[in-house]
Input
Amino acid sequence: MKVFLVFVLVAGLLTHSATAKGQKAINKQNPLELSIIADKRRYKATEQLRFNVLLMNSGKEDVYIFGTLDFGYSASLILHIRDASGKEVQPFFDDLTFASPNDTSAFVKLLPDHFLGTKFYSPVNDLNMNRPGRYAIYVEYHSPFSASDVQLKHFWGKENGRLKSNVLNFEIIR
Amino acid sequence: MVKINITDKIEKSEQEEIKTRLDAAIAKINAGAEQLTSEQIHAINSLKRIEIRNDVRATFTNPNNKVLNMTTRLAQHPTLDYLAIAIIHESYHADQIRRGLPFNGVSSDGKDNYGKREMEASGFAVDVGKQIGLAKEVIDTYAIDAKKGHGPVPGSIYVKPLQKKKKTP
Output
């Protein structure tokens, strides 16, 4: 029994070490992490769905990002909703970015372990989640600006692609 | 003449301010109507109504009824030309909806339809914006969107390439 416990402990340490190394490598390439958090997961179709979006600097260096977190293809955040069959239920949010890359006040510096966040809210029926059932929601972040257009060092630009958040499951009830 | 509804969940003075700004933005579009083609005017007129709301986080045009749902924050944008070009951009989405263009999925050329529709709407807004004499910095914002879109740059390490569909025999 003791031998088995020691084996489990050693195996656990090895796995943890490998995961930590993998995590470190990802963070070095990609200092930003996107997550969504919700207190409530069950809604009636007549209610207003809410969750928070957090963009966290998990790296070791400061990162500059665009300071406005709006929802739309031409903004910073894209909302994705899938129904239980996996079909995308597109809400078509379309905020636009009304800022110039030359306006440095439009950008914020995220120190390591700091985050920028926003809250999302919308009536359930505006999200095309009218039918009772389960829905999966996730968010993607992308910069509306190219790093080459912004005169700031360590700017997270469009070139860095999209960051995907965790997926949250919601249930719509009658 | 597009109908405007403003939420009564905000102060009366705010409602008045928003109404004045929207009227001014629409007047600006109407003032330049002579410079537009009949197709452009038809596209702009596709918008059924503008609802100003504070219960939704983002602006959108509802594909089910072609109503522009605008946040109070956008309606109160200090630059009038931004408001005008946003209405023009969104009206083109209403026109795309009228023509039955897809917003979901991927097109036959492998491009994401949502992004394509956005780029088309921004291209339309740039053309109309120039014709009716909106400010250059406002047009420039949309010009970037019209040309490049805001999708990920090809080859980005964080983006998986699109999977080609297997041909069925």
Notes: Residues 31-173 of chain A form a domain with the Immunoglobulin-like fold (CATH 2.60.40.2970). Helices of chain A lie at 2-29.
